[in-house]
Every structure is written in structure tokens, then in C-alpha cells.
Amino acid sequence: MPPASLDAIIIGAGFAGMYQLLTLRDRLGLHVHLLEAASGVGGTWFWNRYPGARCDSESHSYCYGFSKELLEEWEWSERYPEQPEILRYLNHVADRFDLRRNISFNTRVTACTYDEAANLWHVTTATGETHSARYLITAVGCLSSANIPNIPGLEDFQGQWYHTGEWPHDGVDFTGKRVGQIGTGSTGIQAVPVIAETAAHLTVFQRTANYSVPAHNAPLTREFKNWVKTSHAEIRAVMKSTPNGHPFTIADRKVADVSPEEREALYEAAWAKGGLQFRATFQDLLVNRQANDTAADFLKRKIRGTVKDPKTAEILSDIDHPYAAKRPPIDSHYFETFNRPNVELVDLRAAPIERITQTGIKTTDAEYNLDIIVFATGFDAMTGPLFRLNLTGRDGLKLTDAWRAGPETWLGLGVPGFPNLFTITGPGSPSVLCNMPVCIEQHVDWITDCIAHMRAHGQTTIEAQPEAALKWSDAVDAAANATLLPEAGHSWYLGANVPGKPRRFMPYAGGMAHYRNICNDITAKNYEGFTLA
């Protein structure tokens, strides 16, 4: 149980919440407590245990950088770590820094209400308990509110169904089963090859065709591990200098700078290396449609060259958006899986789902008998996890009303009308466009420094100014519109995957390094855009 008097309450025990707990408790000496709905730490890596769940950032960059000792003592086993290994890492961090004594597990927050007279946040849990603190910090993640599409008949289905973001901890046995998977985004692309290995038959229902680059995942060599241990400072410096927070730089060349033959060779080399670095082959892939078309054409040719059935290959390569305008997946033998005799692809563009029946899925032109349905349909991204907290700010203002037309934040850190609320990687921050630990650490350090500043100056309230949030919304729009990102009109970056959700590009696309400088400048200007009292 948390103490009766708290300085801060944190919600969520993933990468963000754990680090925020550590900084407020150990750096500032605050009375702080963390509330977590799950039975353990891990955040997204606690819940996402679906087949093939794996990080798409390279392991040596997907970790905390605040502790030299932690960096040196932990050793990753693979280029792209699998969910169990990441969860072991986060449990190691929780144990190493004795974080659990300040965490209440199995504690789901159901409401958060700001009390202006007392200048306190009152946080209510599902068991009816209420905890109060001056500061409320949300660390609920950007992709933690499962999106289950409203398909008629789901309640009639007599088999089992699962969402990848809420996977049973004891796993699912697909042996001998007829499985249908809806969704072919990053998660679906990871799950398909693994499910196909044991299922009697797998039917993949594709709503939107997607690019994917091979991960070429492999165990890390001893030489690479030794290099990482002696190069942490160099690696972190690169990560802090790049737009996406990854440990590689974007090539200083444009597509038009090279001949078609050179371009093809560069793409082939990037394909052979694999991973997200493919999009760093040229600097103008996300800002110039003609340049992007060269990458898109290359990737579509790779799909058609991999998938043996011409009709299946055509459906998989019929992609309607620029490369990397949606989250760019990386995979382990995804396209090769469609060459298996027990795997079938259904094009939902040509024949949409009409309903789920007692025995499977019925499209407009066929019915598919299934034992298990897997929803790899993503999340109500960025705003959804915050809405689930039922936040009520000054004068009874509900966050759902404040953001009815889309999220309005100052830097993705603060919300007008919600004093002393900090949102780690909230809408309007680089967040999902980056290697997440990099932007998480920047946000947590900024929040910690801000609270320290307030305490040093006898200030007890901080609130984002409405005019600053409006100005930032314009900056977020401008940054997105300077790229090809908005051209993927069905992207969850825009909220387009959730019916009725306002269309607004939510993450800040101006790059993590640039964003860091903006935040530092705001701090230097005595927290410009915030009212401190």
C-alpha cells in the first residue's frame, strides 16, 4: 500500500514508469508510488506475448542508458530481442534498483480527478481505493489499448479468439487447429510465420498490404558483445543525434545523387543487412515521393520474387502508401510463409468481412471455418490509453471532451486545463516514430528536472498554456506535412484504425534530436508555454 501522503503518483510499470519512479525517488527524494494494472513490471512487454513477439529496435539500443553499470552488466543474446528476454531485462532492472517496494501491482486505475482547492490529484482504482498526490505522471504507453474491430457476430463464435495485445500468459496451442488471423501490420507480420509452423491451416485476412524488410535476426557474436561493452558512450551519442533515436545515421545522399545501378546495389546491400536501417539508405525517402517510389518498387519486387503463387504475390504487393509512411515492419520469413501449403491469403479489399459466424468468418464471397481467430488489429494508439484513465482536470474538464477534435498538448508533456499532469511520450511528442527508450529517457529526465526546479523555487503548480498547445499542434501538423507520413490515410498515426476517432497526425515528426533541442530551449526560457505558480 502506498503511504497516505504522496508527492507523485505514476501510472504504468513499463520502461517509462520504472525510470520515472527511480528518478523521482532516488534523485529528488520524493514520496512517490506507482500503480500498475498487471501482476508484474514490463508494460507492453508484459501483455504482448503473442507468437513471434520481438522488438524491432536492435537490442544494444533498446535499453536504458542512464546507468553505465547497468549497460555493462546486462548482455543481450540476439540482434532483435524476443519478448521473454526483454521482460527478463525489465525484471532485472526492477530488482537491481529495488523498485517493487514502491509499486502496487494488480491495481487498475479507473479515474483521476484534479482537486483545485487542495492542489491534489485523486486517483481511484478498480477496488474503490483512492490515492492522492500533487503530481500525476502517466506512463501508460502509446500502444496499450487493444483495438478489437466491431465485426458483427463475434459473440456467436464457438471457437476461441484472442487479441495479440492481451495474449494468454500460458500461450495458445495451435497444433491441428484451423486459424484465422485478421491484420498484417507489424504484429501480424511477426505472428504469421510462427502460427503457421504448428497450425493445421492458417488463413490470413489482409486488410492493407504492407511492406516489410527482413530482420535477419541472429545470435550476437562475442565480438559484437565486446564492442558494445566498450562503446556505450559512442553508441548513445549516435542515438541522441539521429531523428529516430536508433544507433545508426541516415546516409548523407539523395536518391537522385546516384545512378540507377548504384541505387539498386545500395538497396540490395540494405536488404542483405536487414532491419529498420533500410530506410536510412537515402536521406530523402520520407520527403520526396519520387525518391520513395524507388524504395517502394524495390520492396514490391522482392515480395513478388519471394512468393511463388502470382496471385498471392500480387495481393501482398498491392500496397497503396509510400514506404515507411506507416510503421515499417521488419520480419522473419513473413513472405516466405505464403509458400507453405497450409497458409492461405484472403484479400479483404476485394471481399470484405461480412460477419463472424458460429464456425468462422464470412466474407462477401466465401466462408472460412475456423477453430481460433487471432486479432492482430493493433491499438487505439496514443490517446486511447489516456482516455481509459478517465482524467478530469480543472473545473470538471474531462480529457475526452478537451480532445474531442484531437489531442492538444504542449510538447506532448502537458495538457491545458490539467495542472500538475505530465504525460510521458504523450501525443505531440516523437514517441512512436522513435526507438522508444530514447524518447522515454528524455521525457523522464525533463519531467524530473522540471519538478526539481519547481521545488527549488517554491512553486507548486504547473500547467500548459492553451495558446502554447495550439501553437504546438500547428508545429506537429507542419512537421508531418513536410513528410510523406500523412499520405498513409489509414494509418494509426492518424487514428484512422479506430472508427469515429478524429483524424489528426499524433506523433511529432520533426525528429528526436530536434525535439530534444526544443525542450531544452523551453527549459532555458523558464519553462515557456507553462504557467508556474
How does this structure look, described?
With 533 residues, this protein is an alpha/beta fold. The chain folds into 2 domains: 6-145 and 381-532, FAD/NAD(P)-binding domain; 178-222 and 238-375, no CATH class. It has helices spanning 15-27, 44-47, 68-73, 83-96, 186-198, 222-230, 232-241, 260-273, 289-306, 310-317, 334-337, 384-387, 399-402, 436-456, 466-481, 512-524; strands spanning 6-11, 32-35, 103-104, 109-115, 120-125, 130-138, 160-163, 178-182, 201-206, 213-214, 330-331, 343-347, 353-356, 360-363, 367-369, 372-375, 391-392, 421-423, 462-464, 530-532. The strands form 5 sheets. Strands 1, 2, 3, 4, 5, 6, 17 and 18 form an 8-stranded mixed sheet that branches. Strands 7-16-8-9-12 form a 5-stranded parallel sheet. Strand 4 and strand 5 form a beta hairpin. Helix 1 runs parallel beside helix 14, helix 9 (289-306) runs antiparallel to helix 10 and helix 14 (436-456) packs parallel to helix 16 (512-524). It is globular, with a radius of gyration of 23 Å. It starts with 5 loop residues before the first strand and ends with a strand.
Topology record:
Layout: E1 6-11, H1 15-27, E2 32-35, H2 44-47, H3 68-73, H4 83-96, E3 103-104, E4 109-115, E5 120-125, E6 130-138, E7 160-163, E8 178-182, H5 186-198, E9 201-206, E10 213-214, H6 222-230, H7 232-241, H8 260-273, H9 289-306, H10 310-317, E11 330-331, H11 334-337, E12 343-347, E13 353-356, E14 360-363, E15 367-369, E16 372-375, H12 384-387, E17 391-392, H13 399-402, E18 421-423, H14 436-456, E19 462-464, H15 466-481, H16 512-524, E20 530-532
Parallel strand pairs: 1-2, 1-6, 2-3, 4-17, 6-18, 7-16, 8-9, 8-16, 9-12, 10-11
Antiparallel strand pairs: 4-5, 5-6, 13-14, 14-15, 19-20
